[in-house]
Specification:
Helices cover 32% and strands 24% of the residues. It is of the alpha/beta class and 463 residues long. The chain has a domain of 178 residues: 2-Layer Sandwich (Nucleotidyltransferase, domain 5). A hairpin with an 8-residue loop joins strand 14 and strand 15.
């Protein structure tokens, strides 16, 4: 039996940029000359925009959309390939047009008629290094392979004409500095927003996205790296995957007693049926399939015959299928809505889990400490805001240190918002780029061994 439980989904609160005083309220400056600032977080898979009243530091509205460039590939290397093959102007133009359109939608939805006198006077931008290069229309050739190099360094100060905006005349656009070829301004924004350079603490921050950036602060010595996590957590590359939103299955529970499957679905009040599964639901599903005995620790999803032989609940056995050769083994969460978890889906999560764990362990070794020495583990990114920690820890996506884990939401976007109002914050990002130790995982001889070990679906303790 499949039971669907609905929980209220409010898209307005799905992502929120926060400056020190930000909260949604009416503008106090009156209708004359409302001055706006836009904070932009450009991810490989998603683009998030927050729009602020600059005088009052008030968040007026925000919106997240799938990056329109995903049609050119799900990862940065595919975007770089298309750029180097002559599509760099196209990808740049697509990005600029989408950002302007998002700003327009936010204005239409959140600024009342009496405040229609406005100007977007400032914009701050963060993103991975590739996205920042494409936004600025800079050459990405140096990002395509070793020895990696960036086309620019430090803070980029431009205006809207220089980057090709057609709707908004923005006098000041600040792109925060990238740290390295594949550790971008988004990681720098997280680092500075969370002050991951304090000398009285050991802490790790993992910004989980298509590229997972990992930051380790050992009493003021900062180490960073990035690793390819893939877009699975944002619903891309998953057979029934969709973004977190109305109609998305965001939680899964499986009864090992009677085989009942309880699905939690995000609902906006329209009484719709489940459309697919988002990242948090997929993490739950893998955790529950492991517990139910239909998924092994090496990531193999049993066939129906194998599950029957292993004395798995017969109702769960009946949810296993491999009749479609193109899909391979899969588990049916909802036959009515044709929502399934496939062997490939599980492998995609395994790859991300292995890459993140191995990356963290490399940084810990470089710093000469272990996970037991860490005081705080901060999980950043929109995905981290919705993840169920117990499920993620059950198979090692997150370290099994629940008392140390803190979910900090879209810290990169929050840093972009802070940069709108705080000149010292912006200056600090550039200063810190000279002090950070970047670790290139491809150059680490032991990374591959750590990665293969970390692929196993088991709890992640210090070893």
């Amino acid at each position: 039996m499949v039971i669907v439980r609905k929980e209220k989904f409010n898209s307005e609160k799905s992502i929120q940029y926060i400056s020190d005083k930000a909260e949604k309220t009416e503008n106090k400056s009156g209708m004359e000359g409302l001055k706006l600032g836009a904070a932009i977080d450009i991810g490989t898979t998603s683009i998030a925009v927050g729009l602020f009243d600059m005088e009052n530091e008030v968040l007026l509205g925000n919106l997240t959309q799938t990056n329109c460039q995903t049609k050119f590939g799900s990862d940065v290397m595919m975007r770089i390939m298309h750029c180097t093959n002559g599509k760099e102007q196209l990808l740049h133009d697509m990005l600029i047009e989408q950002i302007e359109n998002i700003i327009t939608v936010i204005i239409e939805q959140n600024i009342s008629e009496k405040y229609k006198a406005y100007v977007v006077e400032r914009m701050t931008v963060v993103g991975n290094t590739t996205m920042c290069h494409i936004f600025l229309n800079r050459d990405v050739t140096g990002l395509s392979g070793a020895p990696f190099s960036m086309a620019y360094k430090g803070i980029a100060n431009v205006n809207s004409q220089e980057v090709g905006f057609k709707i908004y005349n923005i006098s000041e656009i600040i792109v925060l500095p990238n740290i390295h070829s594949h550790v971008g301004a988004d990681a720098m924004s997280v680092l500075c927003n969370e002050k991951l350079y304090k000398k009285d603490v050991n802490e790790i921050a993992i910004d989980i996205g298509t590229n997972a950036e990992i930051i380790l602060n050992r009493h003021g010595d900062v180490y960073v790296t990035s690793t390819a996590a893939g877009p699975a957590f944002e619903g891309k590359g998953i057979y029934s995957g969709i973004r977190a939103g109305a109609g998305a299955i965001n939680s899964v529970k499986i009864s090992r007693v009677n085989g009942n499957i309880i699905l939690g679905m995000l609902d906006d009040g329209t009484k719709q049926s489940p459309k697919g599964i988002c990242g948090s639901g997929l993490i739950d599903a893998i955790s529950e399939l492991l517990k139910a005995g239909v998924l092994t620790k090496d990531g193999y999803l049993l066939t129906k015959q194998e599950a029957v032989a292993a004395n798995v609940n017969i109702n769960l056995c009946n949810c296993l299928d491999n009749s479609d050769e193109k899909i391979g083994n899969y588990f049916v969460l909802s036959e009515k809505n044709k929502i399934i978890v496939t062997q490939k889906d599980i492998r995609n999560v395994q790859l991300a889990k292995g890459a993140i764990q191995a990356g963290v362990e490399v940084l810990l070794e470089k710093a000469g400490i272990t996970m037991n020495d860490i005081d705080k583990i901060k999980i950043a990114g929109v995905f981290g805001k919705f993840i169920h920690a117990s499920s993620a820890m059950s198979f090692g996506l997150l370290p099994s240190y629940p008392d140390k884990i803190e979910f900090i939401g879209n810290a990169a976007g929050n840093g972009a918002a802070r940069a709108l109002f705080d000149a010292d914050f912006v200056k600090n990002t550039e200063k810190l780029t000279e002090e950070i130790r970047h670790i290139e995982l491809a150059d680490e001889n032991d990374f591959q061994n750590k990665f293969l070990y970390a692929m196993e679906l088991k709890e992640w303790y210090y070893r």
